[in-house]
Amino acid sequence: MVQNLSQSAGQETRELVEMSWDPITRIIGNLGIHTKIDFANREVVECRSTSSLFRGYSVFMKGKDPRDAHFITSRICGICGDNHATCSVYAQNMAYGVKMPHLAEWIVNLGEAAEFMFDHTIFQDNLVFVDFCEQMVKETNPSLLHRAENTAAPRSDEHGHRTIADIMRAFNPFTGGMYREALQMSRLTREMFCLMEGRHVHPSTLYPGGVGTVATPQLFSDYLARLLKVLDFVKKAVPMNDDLFDFFYAALPGYEEVGRRRIMLGCWGAFQNPDVVDYTYRNMPEWGRKQFVTPGIIVDGELVTNSLVDINVGIRILLGSSYYDDWENDGEVFVTRDPLGNPIDRRHPWNQTTIPRPQKRDLGEGGKYSWVMSPRWLDPRTGDLLALDTGGGPLARLWSTALNGLVETDLIRATGHSVKITLPKSEGSPEKHLEWHIPKWSNTIERDRARVYFIAYAAAAAFHFVTQAMDEVRAGRTKVFQDFAVPDDAIGCGFHEAVRGVLSHHLVIRDGKIANYHPYPPTPWNASPRDVHGTPGPYEDAVQGLPIFEENGPENFKGIDIMRTVRSFDPCLPCGVHMYLGGGRTLKRLHSPTLGAGA
Amino acid sequence: MARIRVGRPDVRPDAPSHVRGIREGNEPGGYEKTPGLRPDGTATARRSTGINPGARDPIDPSMPNLPPA
Asked: Which residues form a coiled coil (chain A) (predicted)?
C-alpha cells in the first residue's frame, strides 16, 4: 500500500510515503511491517510491526494434563517445534523434580544441535540470501552488482568463488550452487535430528525425565557420519558469508546503520551440562551458567547478568498496543514468590492471564494494532523496562557466550571477547579454525553473519556431545529415562534457545492439572509492538531511522534494506513476503508547531 | 476469559489425560519392572528380546552389554 503524506513542521517539510509489507507470513501469526518513508532523505521515518493471528496456547493449555505439555506446545511452530518441546520438558522436569540420566541429556543436546544446523542453514542460504543474491542485487542495486563483478573475493582459496558476484550467483534461488547444496544439507541435518528425537519437527521420543531413543553405538555412528558431511559445507559457507558481508560494508559506506539498534540482547542459554543440571530452581543460576551456550543479558555491550533466576524474575509482559484486556486488576495471582523468596510480579508469565479482545487494527498514535504482547525485561540497575532482542538468535548466543568466557571444550573456547571454533578434518577438507569476534554493532549484517558462525558452533558442540554420549554407551550406561510422579501442586520454568532466540515456558500445576502455562518464544520479544510506555519493539526500533541504500525510487521500490533488516531477526521463515504497491491515495497532513496558528 | 463468542466444546480440556487403571509410563517403579534394565543404569539382552536372551549377552562379563534397539 502506498500513501503519500506531507508533513510540514515549521520550515521543514517531509514527503512521507506509507509503505506496507503485510503479510510477512509464517511467523507465530502473520507479521506485517507498516512504514512511512522519506524518499527525499532516503530514510524510514516510522515503523510498526503487527501480527494478525491469535494462537491462544496459554488459554487452551489450562486444565490439561501437564505431561501432554511438550507434545502440544511443540505445535506452536512448524520449524522449531522441538525447541518448544525441549523447553517444555525442562519446565516439567523442574515441576516434577526429576533429573534426566546423562545419556538422555546428551541425546537431547545432539538433537537440538542438529536442529540449529538445519534451521540456520535453510534460513540463511535459502531465504536470507535471496535478499543478497545476484538476481536481487541486480534489481535493487545494479551499480553494486557491477562493483561486485570486479571485486575479487579475499577468501576465494577457501570457498572457490573468484569474485563477490560469483558468491552472489551461488545464492540465486533454484539455480545457485550454494542454494541447492543447502537444501541437501537441510535433509542431512534433519536426518541427524530424527536419529535423536524420533521425528522432525515434533519430536516423538522426547519426554520429561528422559528420552525414548534407544542408545546404541550405531545411533551415534550414524549421526557422526552425517555430521562429517555437514562440516565440508560449513567450512565453505563461513568464508563465503564473511566475504559477502565485508563487501557490503566496503562498497556501501554507512551500511552498518541498516538495522542498527542499541545493543540490548537476551540469551537464555542452551545445551545442558548433565554433570551439573538438576533442574532445581534454587541451583538454576549455577547449572544455567554451565550450559554449552551461556545465558546472559547484554546492554550496551556489557553483561548485566548471566543468572537464570535474575532473568526469570525480571520478565514483564506489557500491553499497550496489543488486542488484549489487562489482567493487572482482576487476573488470578498464581505465584507471589519464587522458591528463593523473590517477589514475582503480576506481569510475570507465571501470573499472566490472557484475555483476548479482538478489534479493528488502528495504526494511529496510541492505537492497538497487534496480537503480539510486549515482553520486556526489568533492568534492576536503572528500573528501565528493556525491549530486548535476540539478534535473530545467534548474535545474542555468541555475544553472551563470548562475553561470559565460560565455555571450553576440545573444539570451542569462549575468550571473553570472541568465540574460537575448531572444525575437525572431514572428508573433503582439513581441520579449520574459526573465530567469531564481538562486533561493534547490533545490526542487520552482524545478525546474519553470526548465524553462519553459529552453524559452525553447533557442529563443534555436537562433536563434544557425541563423544560424551559414546563414552556413556561404551561403559554400558544405556539408561535414558528416569521415572517420576506428577505432583498435585507445583511450578516450573524452562529456559532454552529456540533457533531464533530466547525461549521460556512457565508452568503452574494445581490438582495435577495445568492451571497456567505461558510459552514466550523469541518472536514476541522481537516483533513486539509499542508497549504501554510507548517503547517500540525491536523490529520497529531497528527499521525506524534506517537509511535506504536501494537505488529504486518509490515507483518500483522493493524495500530491500527493510526486508533484510526484518529477516535478519529470523522471523520464523519469512518466505511468504508479499508486497502490495497499489495506486494508493494522496493525503495532505499538516502539522503546525505554533499553538493556534495555521490549520 | 475474554468476552468473545465461542462454540460449544466437543471435549473437556483434560480429555487426553490419564485413564484410571491404565499403567503410566512415568510412574515410579516403572524402570525396575521393565525386563532387562538393571538398577545401575546398564541393560542386558533381555531388554531387546525374550527369546533365549542369556545366550545373547557378551561372552566376557567385563564387556559392555549393548543390546540392539
From this structure: none
Nearest alpha-carbon partner for B65 in A27, A118, B49, B6: B49
pTM of the shown model: 0.92
User: How do residues A281-311 score in pLDDT, each as one tens digit?
Assistant: 999 999 999 999 999 999 999 999 999 999 9
Q: B27 CA to chain A: closest CA distance, Å?
A: 6
Which of A63, A209, A355 is nearest residue B14 as measured by Cβ atoms?
A63
Contacts of B41 in chain A (CB under 8 A): 101, 477-479
Q: What is the ipTM of this complex?
A: 0.90
User: Among B30, B64, B68, whose Cβ lies nearest the Cβ of A483?
Assistant: B30
CB contact under 8 A, B41 and A479: yes
Say whether B26 and A214 touch across the interface (CB within 8 A).
no
Separation CA B57–CA A258 (nearest Å): 64
Taking all residues of chain B, what is their mean pLDDT, rounded to a whole number? 86
Q: How many Cα atoms occupy the beta-carbon half-sphere of A503 within 13 Å?
A: 26
Selected for mutation to probe chain A from B10, B11, B17 (highest A CB count within 10 Å) is: B17
Q: How far apart are CA A136 and CA A555, in angstroms?
A: 17
Residues A85, A76: contact at Cβ < 8 Å? no
When the pLDDT of each residue in chain A is averaged and rounded to a whole number, the result is: 91
> Chains A, B: CB contacts under 8 A, how many?
77
Domains belonging to chain A, first-starting first, are: 2-586 (1.10.645.10)
Write the burial class of residue B13 (CB in 10 Å: 0-12 exposed, 13-18 middle, 19+ buried).
middle
List, run by run, the mean pLDDT of 10-residue segments along chain A (599 residues): 48 77 60 88 91 81 92 89 96 98 98 97 91 95 97 97 97 95 96 97 96 95 97 97 97 96 97 98 97 98 97 96 90 95 97 90 90 94 96 97 98 97 95 98 97 98 97 95 96 96 96 93 91 94 94 88 91 41 44 44
